[in-house]
Amino acid sequence: MTSPHETAQFRNSATYTVVLTYTVAGGARVQTARRRAERVAEKIANAASRLGSVVDVRAVAGPAGADGELLWPTPVRFSAANTGESRLDDPGKLPRYLDPDYERALTSLADAHVRARARRDADRERRRAIGCANALQAVTPFSRGCNCVYCRPVEHHAVALSQTDGEHWCSCGRYITTAGERCPDHRDVQLVVLDGDPEELTTLASRPDNRGSMQQDE
Questions:
Q1: What pLDDT, in 10s, does the model give residues 59-78?
Q2: 3-state DSSP of 88-147
Q3: Is residue 217 within 8 Å of 194, Cβ to Cβ?
């Protein structure tokens, strides 16, 4: 099932900012123009939130300099908004409109980032334990050559199936002479399986010579 953040509507969305400078008429009182200008900003934000296909609206407004530069940007709180902190004097107005489906997609994306970061950290730790040459970098087709079990699980699996003495690999990629054995540096290191690993690595981790395999599913 496709996650909300993987749908075309989310992945191909576009975010725009419109810089609009306007002038309102003043009045008998000094603050009249300021209040009128604030109401105009709220109406603009409200209108934007009601337009078709618009799923997220935030706005800032404030006095502008002679060249239109925003001098004191303040979040606009408008009645069509549905999230964020309201003003104490008007609790019915919030600073952001967020479509519920779009919000679910944002939450889904944030969760995916957390899971990816956790898996990346776990992968780095297991590679460091085995002495992998790529322990501190993302593994890509251009990564440094390494013969450890995490970089070459298919080859390690094929070697493990032979069960004959001769040239065999330790999990770190060093050659050893006895099938099923490890080099002295990694004799007690367990293989760690993460979600998304190839089947060959899962099989190797389940073998008795893995010293009681430890699996982690993110």
A1: 999 999 888 889 999 999 99
A2: CCECCCECEEECHHHHHHHHHHHHHHHHHHHHHHHHHHHHHHHCCCCCCCCCCCCCCCCC
A3: yes
Quick one: pLDDT at residue 218?
Answer: 44
Res 140: pLDDT: 59
pTM of the model: 0.71
pLDDT 10s digits, 156-194:
888 887 766 566 788 998 888 766 678 888 888 889 999
Nearest-angstrom CA–CA distance, 32 and 24 = 10
User: Are 51 and 59 a contacting pair, CB within 8 Å?
Assistant: no
Two tokens, residue 210: 């893995």
Q: How does DSSP classify residue 78? A: B
pLDDT tens digits, one per residue of 192-213: 999 999 999 999 999 876 753 3
**Nearest-angstrom CA–CA distance, 191 and 176:** 18
Is residue 45 within 8 Å of 59, Cβ to Cβ? yes
Show the tokens assigned to 92: 């019915």
**DSSP of 175-187, one letter per residue?**
EESSTT---GGGT
CB neighbour class for 17 (10 Å; exposed up to 12, middle 13-18, buried from 19): exposed
CA 57 to chain centre: 22
Query: Would you state the structure tokens that stand for residue 9, as one six-digit string?
Result: 């509507």
